[in-house]
């Protein structure tokens, strides 16, 4: 595991390191903490061999807080700063109502860092997990996210998604001065790298299931076309440039096919293209708008937006039979559905009296719940572990990214200094 | 891009000035517009040449000039969530139809746009619907489909930034890009 971790990190850094622009990074502003968050303390890690370029414990603390599952104890409330499990005096921490404690130390070696961390159960007075992780000189942030993943899973039983990435689009200016760019960054907004820039619109980025490629729509030829780009090498191909709309690419779970919207035969309809052979199969054929396809995790069905009932509603097309089934009935605008990794929940944009908001619908009961407290929301994208939804929203007159927990209890924003940010896409698990 | 299309415009105008005299009519076609505007019929019956000059498209009295020049008004606007042509813009479409009929080599891209409300790919479809609405109008007016191309930009290319009603009204549009 540790060796694997190091190899993967090195690969990622080789590909991205030179292109990173810290000033372009998104930052995090917690806008709502969950009232059910578990109290935890992440003690600053002891540093052996001088000050560290990154505060590992702070990164872990930020990760865990952002998830909405945890409420980290402020550092100034810590009386004691143990760096190993042996030094922990449990009574002190239980007096502070802390349920879990993370301690650790970082030592610098010739070719990088060695991080030792331990997760302690305060009420059980025992060590839950602990291990050594090694990382290269520029890998401290990635190591911290890896540790966050281990802690999150050990306590919640849910796989952590802190080592994932996000793709998003930035836009500056209007008219002939407009500039568009496609970026990828760590899930916390750091390490942003530009993948593409253009004077014409870019939209609908979608990660391949292996996390290596992005499909997206670019107007760079002054017509919309779907491209697939290798995120690491930058190599790309234009997959479709039919007359009319070429939009909304969505990878099948096996990564071999792309569902998409094409209007070459008249109205916008859903098609599936085999990426290898480029064979095209038409899925819907209606006189209405059919768009925004997204696959169920088992690959057996697609959800999509259609206005066949008069306004946009979400439908489900099952492979191997039958008419598409209408899923949404609450209100007169439901669009851009995404199914959770466990297949049980539909995340979508719902128009309520407060505007366009991120909502969740239980696929069994049909019950719809609004999750965000913003308006003008767009483009929900679900974390690979299903715990958070990232989306685009408005803050003042600017587009920013926001995220809300799947239960709606916790939320945060990722402001940027670089114009409008939009079209977020959460990567799959990368390790 | 801007320069390119401008150059093309000039070229078309120059080359077609020579043949402009051949097809100066077009008023008789207006009668066929009755009821096709999908706007409840308001005003369609009177969408004659009088309205064209009233809307600021110059030179209508001199048919030769109108046929040789791309009409000045190249953007029309739409109501929220609608793709029907508003009555006040029918004269603009009639003027473009006359120009395109008279200049068979001219081609135009009908760029469909929406306001920022709603989801992006759904808006892409709505923008296309608006541009198609204009395309159908022009075809009924006798314009050859080969002269017309529809490209939807959805909400990606707003004319005006912001989420106010006024910004939305200026962004819900179809642009004639020659």
UniProtKB/TrEMBL annotation, chain A:
Family membership noted in the UniProt record: Belongs to the TolB family.
HAMAP family: TolB
InterPro entries, A to Z: 6-blade_b-propeller_TolB-like, Tol-Pal_TolB, TolB_N, WD40
NCBIfam families in UniProt: propeller_TolB
Compartment(s) where it occurs, according to its Swiss-Prot or TrEMBL record: Periplasm
Domain spans labelled TolB N-terminal: 26-127
Organism listed in the record: Billgrantia bachuensis
Keyword Manganese in annotation: no
Coiled coil ranges: none
Its job: Part of the Tol-Pal system, which plays a role in outer membrane invagination during cell division and is important for maintaining outer membrane integrity.
Domain of life, source organism: Bacteria
Keywords: Cell cycle, Cell division, Periplasm, Signal
Pfam family, one: PD40
Amino-acid biosynthesis is among the record's keywords: no
Self-association and partners: The Tol-Pal system is composed of five core proteins: the inner membrane proteins TolA, TolQ and TolR, the periplasmic protein TolB and the outer membrane protein Pal. They form a network linking the inner and outer membranes and the peptidoglycan layer.
Protein name per its UniProtKB record: Tol-Pal system protein TolB
Signal sequence interval, chain numbering: 1-22
Major place of residence: periplasm
TrEMBL record, chain B:
The name this protein goes by in its record: Peptidoglycan-associated lipoprotein
Disordered: region residues: 27-68
Similarity annotation: Belongs to the Pal lipoprotein family.
Signal peptide: 1-20
Keyword Glycosyltransferase: no
Subcellular location(s) of the protein: Cell outer membrane
Topology in membrane: Lipid-anchor
SUPFAM superfamilies, sorted: OmpA-like
InterPro entries on file: Bact_OuterMem_StrucFunc, OMP_bac, OmpA-like, OMPA-like_CS, OmpA-like_sf, Pal, Pal_lipo_C
Gly residues: compositionally biased ranges: 37-57
Function: Part of the Tol-Pal system, which plays a role in outer membrane invagination during cell division and is important for maintaining outer membrane integrity.
The UniProt record lists the keyword Membrane: yes
Subunit structure: The Tol-Pal system is composed of five core proteins: the inner membrane proteins TolA, TolQ and TolR, the periplasmic protein TolB and the outer membrane protein Pal. They form a network linking the inner and outer membranes and the peptidoglycan layer.
Species of provenance: Billgrantia bachuensis
Superkingdom in the source lineage: Bacteria
Keywords for the protein's UniProt record, in alphabetical order: Cell cycle, Cell division, Cell outer membrane, Lipoprotein, Membrane, Palmitate, Signal
OmpA-like domain ranges (all copies): 65-178
Annotated gene: pal
């Amino acid at each position: 595991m540790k060796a694997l971790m190091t190899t993967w990190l090195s690969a990622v850094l080789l590909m991205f390191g030179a292109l990173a622009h810290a000033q372009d990074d998104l930052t995090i502003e917690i806008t709502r903490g969950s009232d059910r968050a578990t109290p935890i303390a992440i003690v600053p890690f002891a540093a052996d061999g001088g000050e560290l370029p990154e505060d590992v414990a702070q990164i872990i603390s930020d990760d865990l807080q952002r998830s909405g599952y945890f409420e980290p104890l402020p550092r100034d409330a810590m009386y004691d700063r143990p760096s190993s499990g042996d030094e922990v005096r449990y009574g002190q921490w239980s007096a502070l109502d802390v349920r879990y404690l993370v301690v650790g130390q970082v030592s610098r070696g010739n070719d990088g860092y060695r991080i030792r961390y331990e997760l302690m159960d305060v009420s059980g007075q025992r060590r839950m997990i602990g291990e050594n992780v090694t990382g290269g000189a520029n890998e401290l942030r990635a190591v911290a996210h890896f540790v966050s993943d281990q802690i999150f899973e050990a306590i919640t039983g849910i796989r952590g998604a802190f080592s994932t990435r996000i793709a998003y689009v930035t836009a500056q200016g209007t008219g002939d001065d407009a500039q568009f760019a496609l970026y990828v960054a760590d899930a916390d907004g750091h390490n942003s790298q530009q993948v593409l820039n253009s004077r014409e619109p870019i939209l609908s980025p979608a990660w391949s299931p292996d996390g290596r490629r992005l499909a997206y729509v670019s107007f760079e030829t002054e017509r919309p076309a779907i491209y697939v780009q290798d995120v690491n090498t930058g190599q790309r191909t234009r997959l479709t440039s039919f007359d009319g709309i070429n939009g909304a690419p969505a990878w099948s779970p096996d990564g071999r096919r792309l569902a998409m919207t094409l209007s070459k035969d008249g109205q916008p309809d859903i098609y599936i293209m085999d990426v290898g052979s480029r064979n095209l199969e038409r899925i819907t054929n209606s006189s209405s708008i059919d768009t925004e396809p997204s696959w169920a995790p088992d690959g057996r069905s697609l959800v999509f937006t259609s206005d066949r009932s008069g306004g946009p509603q979400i439908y489900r097309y099952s492979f191997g039979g039958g008419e598409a089934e209408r899923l949404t009935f609450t209100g007169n605008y439901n669009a851009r559905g995404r199914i959770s990794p466990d297949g049980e929940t539909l995340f979508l944009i719902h128009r309520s009296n407060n505007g366009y908001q991120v909502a969740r619908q239980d696929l069994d009961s049909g019950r719809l719940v609004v999750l965000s407290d913003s308006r003008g929301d767009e483009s929900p994208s679900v974390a690979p572990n299903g715990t958070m939804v990232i989306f685009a929203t408005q803050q003042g007159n600017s587009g920013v990214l926001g995220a809300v927990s799947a239960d709606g209890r916790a939320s945060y924003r990722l402001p940027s200094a670089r114009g409008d940010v939009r079209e977020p896409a959460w990567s799959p698990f990368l390790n | 891009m801007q320069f390119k299309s401008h150059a093309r415009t000039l070229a078309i105008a120059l080359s077609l000035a020579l043949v402009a005299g051949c097809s100066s009519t077009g008023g008789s076609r207006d009668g066929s517009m009755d009821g096709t505007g999908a706007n409840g019929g308001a005003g369609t019956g009177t969408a004659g040449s009088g309205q064209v000059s009233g809307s600021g498209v110059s030179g209508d009295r001199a048919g030769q000039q109108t046929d040789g020049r791309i009409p000045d008004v190249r953007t029309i606007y739409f109501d929220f969530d609608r793709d029907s042509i508003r009555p006040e813009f029918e004269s603009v479409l009639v003027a473009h139809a006359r120009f395109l009929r008279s200049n068979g080599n001219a081609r135009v891209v009908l760029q469909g746009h929406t306001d920022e409300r709603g989801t992006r790919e759904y808006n892409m479809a709505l923008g296309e619907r608006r541009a198609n609405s204009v395309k159908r109008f022009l075809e009924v007016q006798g314009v050859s489909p080969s002269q017309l191309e529809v490209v939807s930009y959805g909400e990606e290319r707003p004319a005006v930034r912001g989420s106010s009603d006024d910004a939305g009204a200026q962004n819900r549009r179809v642009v004639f890009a020659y």
